[in-house]
Hints:
It is found in: Cytoplasm; Nucleus. It holds the Pfam family STAT_int. One of its GO terms (biological process) is cell surface receptor signaling pathway. Belongs to the transcription factor STAT family. GO terms for molecular function: DNA binding; DNA-binding transcription factor activity. There is one protein chain. By secondary structure, the chain is of the alpha+beta class. The protein is about 50% helix and about 15% strand. It is built from 21 helices and 18 strands. Strands 1, 3, 5, 7 and 8 form a 5-stranded antiparallel beta sheet that branches. Strands 16-15-14-17-18 form a 5-stranded mixed beta sheet. A hairpin with a 7-residue loop joins strand 15 (about 590-595) and strand 16. Helix 1 (about 1-10) crosses helix 5, helix 2 packs parallel to helix 6 and helix 7 packs parallel to helix 9. The radius of gyration is 39 Å and the shape is elongated.
Amino acid sequence: MAVWIQAQQLQGDALHQMQSLYVALYLIQELQNKAEHQVGEDGFLLKIKLGHYASQLKSTYDRCPLELVRCIKHILYTEQRLVREATNSSSPVGGMMDSMSQKYQQINQAFEELRLLTQDTENDLRKLQHNQEYFIIQYQESLRIQAQLTSLATLPPADRQLREPALLSKRATVEAWLTREANTLQKYRLDLAEKHQKTLQLLRKQQTIILDDELIQWKRRQQLAGNGGPPEGGLDILQSWCEKLAETIWQNRQQIRRAEHLRQQLPIPGPIEELLNELNSTITDIISALVTSTFIIEKQPPQVLKTQTKFAATVRLLVGGKLNVHMNPPQVKATIISEQQAKALLKNENTRNDSSGEILNNNCVMEYHQTTGTLSAHFRNMSLKRIKRSDRRGAESVTEEKFTILFESQFSVGGNELVFQVKTLSLPVVVIVHGSQDNNATATVLWDNAFAEPGRVPFLVPDKVLWPQLCDAINMKYKAEVQSNRGLSEENLVFLAQKAFSSSSNNPDDYRNMTMTWSQFNRESLPGRNFTFWQWFDGVMELTKKHLKPHWNDGAILGFVNKQQAQDMLMSKPNGTFLLRFSDSEIGGITIAWVAENPNKAGERMVWNLMPYTTKDFSIRSLADRISDLNHLLFLYPDRPKDEVFSKYYTPPLSKAVDGYVKPQIKQVVPEFTTANPDPASGNPTYMDHGASPAPVNHPHTYGIYPPMSDSMLDADGEFDLDDTMDVARHVEELLRRPVESQWGGQQS
């Protein structure tokens, strides 16, 4: 319903294109309704026309209801894509839809031309068969005449002379007719062969468009979907095209076989035998290419594959139903092979029984689904029991080694006329044995999915790419992981470029022609850090996905801002203004920067930075609650009251005391900015020392309930390390969770 509401809000060409999709569905009912309500003389004529149109449409869908199902699916998919493109892109959708409609129209026109050509050759073949049968009858007549002439030798001369001239004349007439008709039959055969050549030429062209363009594009969309791109879309339209190809190919193959049978039945010297052999070879190549190319992976196995973990995959044969493969359901086997083994396989080198590991539950029978007309095998419970790694090259780590799942099967079509060995390879997978390897494995998969070129040797990818290309890839991944329409802005990407290239330029154009290597991406550590560019970025994604998603979607997190930029932005704002930025020094950390008075110098203001929060911190108390705790934080940059932004995420107040017990609550404070010592008698929750002022200053005073702070708690950047104080908080929280008896030796409180 959400898509339908959005679809109703489309405008201009996008709306027009979407409306046009529904014409076929609504016309039948609407035309019938309109026809029933027409009155008057003009209405009578219109009623006849409308009824005729409705009957035509109804008869079309009555014969092939599955086409209606596919039409509906296509409408829904296209509707979603239209909404997505109209929402996310400033470019006109109408032009893209026009292009797609034109392409589909060309494909459908080619199918119509193929149908007419096939019908034409069917008619010619029947005519040829009829003429040949009549020729054989006349040939038998000539043999009968010849037998009669031979029998005349036993007659008296007078009788022979009386009957022989007529028989000789009749034989001459029949033989002359047979000679002419033999030439005619030969011409028919040659004409039919030439028509079949034309049909097969068009078939090859149509099949190339569908398999090498449309299906390859679908596979590319499937690969990008692995990086968080839009869904690749259903296979129903592609399957309908492939089934039409299969049907047309099979009809022409049967025609060529019948033509060959007619030639064998009545051999006539000439080039037809060679032509028919060529046609038969060509049509076999065409159907072989169709069958082997349409054995595809509908649902890919996970590309980061952990051993001893259950995973699933689905393979599908797009022409299985049309070729009746399901009458003898084939079995599919899954095997994991290395990059080198995949290369050898594509070179047709002998790799039988080669594998790089053991997969449990790796055999599955293909099932035919009558309602959808699909033939597929669903591997639901596979598990990689063990993996055999190859010798690594240079600096390559285990998380850079690529494998693939090989799916293979064998089946026959046409009553065992043709037997096919089919194989297909999954997208590259990286095998890990521990969750700590996941982020580096994901980097390998991301780079491969983003920059793999069609038709590559497995699994070659460029070693370096243009920075804008990488920006597209990581932005796609970020939006998918965070599940947000708010992607990375140009300012965010400039920040990332500065980090990646150790640059200070704020001009996006300075980075457009720069390239980033794989080593820079996830092999070499960033300057002065012990982690790579990807590891830092992946940490940001994970933190945002798990704990900060609503705040990122609200625009409350600037995130991609360095310490100096934060200071420049805050110094022009009133005291208490703060912003949230991702930590430069820690993977998966976010810090609060705010502007306030310098306690050591009257009248001077400075920017303070809290030590970064990580996932372990937010598992204790959420970001919104922590911001609520800190009373000195007043305005979210640039000038939004913090409660206006975060209050909807605050944890509701605890309930009142029950049976004389008050439930404790942990709250965060920064000692330098605590304004009062809470009064326990007031019923307020107990405050815990969760941190301190992160400024590198001396502390002339302390508050009564807080321990004195020493400079040893400061890090090299002059920030306070909250880890120690967080340990205190966790310890107290643990104590508070224990039963009273265990804490106080069984005394009643």
